[in-house]
Write a structure and sequence with these properties.
Ubiquitin-like (UB roll); Acyl-CoA Binding Protein; PH-domain like; 7-stranded antiparallel β-sheet; actin binding; FERM_central; membrane
Length: 552
Amino acid sequence: MSIRGLKKKQPKTFKVRIITVDAEMEFSCEMKWKGKDLFDLVCRALGLRETWFFGLQYTIKGMFTWLKMDKKVLDQEIPKEDPISFHFLAKFYPEKVEEELLQEITQHLFFLQVKKQILDEEIYCSPEATVLLASYAVQAKYGDYDPNFHEPGFLAHDELLPKRVLRQYQLTAEMWEEKITAWYAEHRGIARDEAEMNYLKIAQDLEMYGVNYFPIAQNKNHTDLLLGVDAKGIHIYSINNRFSPNKSFEWSSIRNISCSEKELTIKPLDKKAEVFKFFSSQLKVNKLIFQLCIGNHDLFMRRRKVDSIEIQQMKAQAREEKARKKMENQRLAREKQLREEAERAKEELERRLFQLEDEARQANEALLRSQEAAELLAEKAQIAEEEAKLLAQNAAEAEQERQRLEITALKSKEEKRLMEQKMREAELIAVKLVKESDRRAKEAEHLKQDLHEAREAERKAKQKLLDITRLNYPHMAKYPQYSPGDSRDANFDKGSVKLDLKDIDLKRLSFEIERERLDYLEKSRKFEDRLKELKSEIHALKLEEKQAGLYC
């Protein structure tokens, strides 16, 4: 067969882009492929066996819909683009994630999708629960918390909380990180798949988990209700409340669901019960609700039947895989523990080695210091010995000086005693001189008084003599040349001589008194000078005695 013939037989293809929550893939599909062929190709590429939860979703005219498995891909109303984009997402949700999600890849895909729905606020979650869920997400991504590796700010580029929660509380990114890290540190030892399963177990209890909402009306004119379809049944909500349904129809209580154009009919299992009819805005919405109801109902019935051979094998493999992973995790945990212990032992040995090296260095430095200290002590000892000799010499000199001072002190005491004796003698002489001065002063006073009395008597005698002369010889004044008067004059002259002699004695007495007074003053001055000299000598002796006391 020619190469041209082979080329002609090659089927025509078209390209599709498959977008998962965390990756993108491109495939070449044959023109005749149905939706199931493309879906099986994607599941094989992902290694997914629990295919009944998932589907290929696309958006057309602003409304999302799911690729039909039994129709050709190109025959469906898909976007006209190259490559054609489909989102590989969970279409149906399990009632109990821990029992129904068997494969790790299935669990991981559900974890990523539910996490995105919570962050996009398609599923409402309380702020406290969002922080706990975020901590499990961090554990799944980063593993065990290590404060040395996970430093502040390591979550700065991770989206972990809904914007609604961030707006609701006025907390900084650092505060949120601190709260998440506090929970994250508590999850130590939890593997990635366990952290993701714990995340899903918390999320499955949220009111909006796994619910697909559609606007409906109880009549053709008003759209005032919401219809929710999930793994447990059909629920009717008011337009402003997606948490608490006004009415619910569990799958076990529904006998039949029918769809005709825009009308949806729910027939309860109880034939006497009222039949509920609702209207949707578009036929496509009605068909989408109908498809979701059929798929959820089939899964609901499958859960309550005996597992097929395939499911039993998958569960057995899942149990074996969990047991193997558990043992592997235990082994890894043990190895990690042993490694941490070895690292701690290594750090301890390094610390001990460093400590020993430091001790050796310190000992070497101490030895050098001790050698230097020994040399210094030897020098100091020599200096001390010389100082001791010098001190001994000084002590001997001091002893000699002390003895000299003692002798000087004794001499000073003797001189002091002599001086004191001289002072006492001088004081006695001074007292005697004072008494003598007083006595001489009194005598001089008496003499002066006697002199005054004698002079007064002389004056009176002269006056009396003159008076007598005038009375007896009045003519003598007239006749001075009279000769008889010579004898009287001679007598008068004798009297004058006697008076003159008496006057001479008085003068001599006054002169002697004055001379004795001057002698007394001279002696007093000399005695005062001698007293001053004695006081100076006594003062000098006292100073020497004080200095001698200081030297002792």
